[in-house]
Design brief:
Layout (H helix, E strand, L loop, with lengths): L2 H17 L6 E9 L2 E10 L2 E5 L7 E6 H8 L5 H6 L3 E5 L1 H8 L11 H11 L6
Parallel strand pairs: 1-4
Antiparallel strand pairs: 1-2, 2-3, 4-5
Amino acid sequence: MTGATEEFFASLPERAPAVLRSPLSGSLRIDLYHGDHTAHWRVEMAPGEARVNRDSADADTTWVCRSNFFDRLVVGSEQAIAAMLRSETTIVGDIRLFLAFRGFLPSPPGTRDPRETARESVRDQGGGTR
């Protein structure tokens, strides 16, 4: 596990008001494994807040993945949903908590909001905005 992962988890409480805007609440345990060692991170999420600790207690949702893969997720070089569909990560429990947590993960470099791309296309074609 790298400093990027440590910094990522340390940043969650401060970033939670902007990311966790739905009424969803619950706990997500993230198990990051490397060889025979597993690091546990537990994130308690509620509207506008996140509490992070290193607890391995049961959670509403458990997400398991390789620690080096998670390092790539937190810097935006991988995508969580794509990894789940490729069976590179495992999620057990309330998938909504994983989807809410995904908002903390950065987009890949160069990713643009499709709405902004559409607005630019309309402007380039000489159209106005409403």
